[in-house]
Design a protein that fits this description.
The complex is a heterodimer of chains A (about 110) and B (about 110). By secondary structure, chain A is mostly beta strands. Chain A is built from no helices and 11 strands. The chains are: A mainly beta (about 110), B mainly beta (about 110).
Chain lengths: ~110, ~110
């Protein structure tokens, strides 16, 4: 069974700091990787996706992928209170289906 | 949530009654999905569709059925609701082809089975 693992948190960081969210996956055949943000009581919304090893930056967000280690991470620079949410990692291994982790709760403190 | 609506948004029902949830999209995407989200379990796939009248089971399909008679509509039916089906249900859509596997989610339906 394909698995995606995330630390449930909560991860607490001070405002302005870098938040680092991590995800590991079991299926070596996975091709693409996604980060979603979910505010309490709302639906998941896409932050970014990454296909290739290395870093991908989009504004304050950087996704990092290491396929050899089966590891994907999301860095949030200059964290703001509005970044407080649950972050879901998702992995695509084929068949147009995604496998989701259970999410990491991030709290950005003033 | 743009282009994806779910109805109803909230529903309270009694054990043993059938319940149908509707997902409607205006994006003309081929793939549609139904998930449930529960504390500690994350998002779990119930059923998905890869075209009109083409559906397949996900990891938690027992007690659920689906139908897709039009590209834009995907219905989820709880045949005889049980308390264990109390959850938040999300519909999602995606396209086809490389780079099209990104899923976009509807606003969700909160279902309480008493």
């Amino acid at each position: 069974q394909k698995e995606v693992e995330q630390n449930s948190g909560p991860l607490s960081v001070p405002e302005g700091a870098i938040a680092s969210l991590n995800c590991t996956y079991s299926d070596r055949g996975s091709q693409s990787f996604f980060w979603y943000r979910q505010y309490s009581g709302k639906s998941p919304e896409l932050i970014m996706f990454i296909y290739s090893n290395g870093d991908k930056e989009d504004g304050r967000f950087t996704a990092q992928l290491n396929k050899a280690s089966q590891y994907v991470s999301l860095l949030i620079r200059d964290s703001q209170p509005s970044d407080s949410a649950t972050y879901l990692c998702a992995v695509h291994g084929g068949g147009n289906k995604l496998t989701f982790g259970t999410g990491t709760q991030l709290k950005v403190e003033l | 949530d743009a282009g994806i609506t779910q109805s109803p948004r909230h529903k309270v029902t009694e054990t043993g009654t059938p319940v149908t949830l509707r997902c409607h999209q205006t994006e003309n995407h081929r793939y549609m999905y139904w998930y449930r989200q529960d504390p500690g379990h994350g998002l779990r796939l119930i059923h998905y569709s890869y075209g009109v009248k083409d559906t397949d089971k996900g990891e938690v399909s027992d007690g659920y059925s689906v139908s897709r008679s039009k590209t834009e509509d995907f219905l989820l039916t709880l045949e005889s609701a049980t308390s264990s089906q109390t959850s938040v249900y999300f519909c999602a859509i995606s396209g086809t082809g490389v780079g099209q596997e990104t899923q976009y989610f509807g606003p969700g339906t909160r279902l309480l089975v008493l």
